[in-house]
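dude i think i finally got it to work??
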Amino acid sequence: MKFQYKDTYIEAEDCSTFLQIAKRVQSEYDAPIILAKVGQILTELNKTVTEKSGAVNKTGEPERLSFITTADRDGHKTYERGATMMFLRAMTHVFGRRIAHLKLEYAVGDSLFFSTALKSGDITDEDIEALKATMRRYADDDEKFFKTKIPTEEAIALFRRHGMTDKERLFHYRRTSTTNIYRFGNYCDYYYGYMPPSAGYVNVFDLRKYEGGVLLTLPNHNRPLDPGSPEIPAKLFATMHATNEWGENLGVATVAALNDAISEGRGRDIILASEAYQEHIIGGIAARIKSENRRIVMIAGPSSSGKTSFSHRLSVQLNNVGLRAHPIACDNYYVERDKTPKDENGEYDFECLEALNVELFNEQMTALLRGERVELPTFNFKKGVPEYNGSTLCMGADDVLVIEGIHGLNDKLSYAISPDDKFKIYISAVTALNIDEHNRIPTTDNREIRRMVRDARTRGFSAKDTISRWQSVRHGEQKHIFPFQEGADVMFNSASLYELAVLKTFAEPLLFSIEHDSPEYPEAKRLLKFLEYFLGLSCEDVPRNSLIREFIGGSVFPVG
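look at this
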């Protein structure tokens, strides 16, 4: 078999594996190869090379073969799934029937957090060492991950026998007739995504007790050969924990539970409960701002967190507690287009702090705090210049400025404002749902789908456009937002339990429009598979002040 590879060709014997090819070229890569890519299709390394996999493309040439390493996003997720299965098998090996509860809750920092409980008591330090030794043995022995395709009905029966009731319920809604099951030693499970070829590929990890559970720390994808940071962002963890606990109490902790609610006609109840929970949190934030006599609220968060809608909903609650709120967008303080810095590719860098007129922002904010009347700018994005249209503001004793923007938590943006006047809020969409107890929903997937739907509705961008820009957006978040999140006075989780069921009906047609030979197709295919888990839910009962309206349309607020 022949494939295009880089600027030449590479041959493989029929019935060999992509793993054998990967070993031949591993020296060309700085990180371990963990997946193959044939054309635009991701492939596990254990897969056998056949005539079909080496088929010619539209140009009549052999398909292009490339490789994914643990430094790539898809490769890092594959590493994470392999480590998860190793940990779950080690738990069953060490504790067996003594396990009362075991669930992968979320990723935080460089770690995965598993909530755990034993019938005999808490996990001890000695237990942690036994788990690590067991996982280390799997890696040292390079035990293989096996994938088997079985009828979905058999998979449901398998889950039932092993007490995996969440998966049994999830697959009740599965439309395909077959399911891929992974086996690792005597442990079987289902995973959303690809697996490494063997445990030897997952040889960097650590375990420790944390907040009643276990943290599995893995390498950061930017440093795939080194141990990950053991540091945990405590405020973010607490926010995740509170939201998860609320979802558990509501009885909607997994996609299967959400699907059950929708199929039983309780979708509206979930919508109303989610909105009420968020409104309760926002009301509490407003009361705290008043009690602490803060005059400027600074809001920041990653793309598609719902910052604009949140700033307006918070303003309503601030008004409700006797203050007068004035929402202001940092985007109106962009410098003229010809003064905008450019990145390493020569493109305008609208996400760096220098893209904003920081001096003017501080002059106007401090003038407002002194009680002076100020004419605020409005940035004309088509012309690339700020404009002054007579919009003035003068603050009284009960006035509060509600400012949202990418750099809201960075003190360099508001250097002239006293910390006593500022109240910082970090907002992100951290879903409380899991696909099942062993497959989490990444926050980035939720936000990527939100952005895709909004881009198509308000900016005329295709799903292909959104996906192609997404990694650049993520890079900007890592640089400009996440380093400041723990400096917030409070964190707000903008994700709703029901939202992916609503977004599904908007996102699927957009994703299906991406051509199979497009570089964005693998991501589109992955997101389509992800959305298959959800039953669709009409947006009819979504309130007009909901944060989700910022993305699907129909918001009562001026959010586009």
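The two ends are 52 Å apart (CA to CA).
im so relieved honestly
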